[in-house]
Amino acid sequence: MRRLLLAFVATSLFFCTAAAQEPVAITVGSKKFTENVILGEVLAHLGRDEGLVVNHLRELGGTRILWNALVAGEIDAYPEYTGTIREEILHGVEVAPGATLESVLARFGVAISPPLGFNNTYAIGVT
Q1: Residues 6+ apart with CB under 8 A from 56
Q2: What SS3 state is found at 77?
Q3: Measured between alpha carbons, how far is 59 from 40 in angstroms, rounded to an integer?
Q4: How far is it, in rounded angstroms, from Cα 97 to Cα 118?
Q5: Is 78:59 a contact under the CB 8 Å cutoff?
Q6: In angstroms, rounded to a whole number, what is the distance separating the alpha carbons of residues 48 and 30?
Q7: Around Cβ 32, how many Cβ atoms within 10 Å?
Q8: In this structure, are residues 11 and 23 in contact, taking their beta carbons and an 8 Å threshold?
Q9: For the sheet containing 53-57, what is the strand order?
Q10: What's the average pLDDT block by block, 10 residues per block, for the chain (127 residues)?
């Protein structure tokens, strides 16, 4: 089952209001396809609703571009599929038996949110 999750650094940024005088500023990225841009915009709105200053960088490119930007600290969050995390981002990464996705991503300084509550599984049949 491919569930959509948001991969981001410092999960708590999105669920707390800034206690300091200056608002917390974050940058949300999104890939170069409509669904991801919309989910990035939803994430940006959620952050703004919490009092954060949010910059949404739309259509930055593909998975590797967004992942590298996240790990480098150039963006703070972006929407990603768990299947893409497992099959593309973690391809070639040694994962201990029974390790959770959360524990493996923590090695990169990345956390993920709970599932968004919908499944984006689909298939194409060809002869």
Answers
A1: 27, 28, 29, 30, 40, 41, 43, 44
A2: strand
A3: 10
A4: 27
A5: no
A6: 17
A7: 13
A8: no
A9: 53-57, 25-29, 77-81, 4-8, 111-112
A10: 42 44 90 95 94 96 96 95 91 90 94 81 81
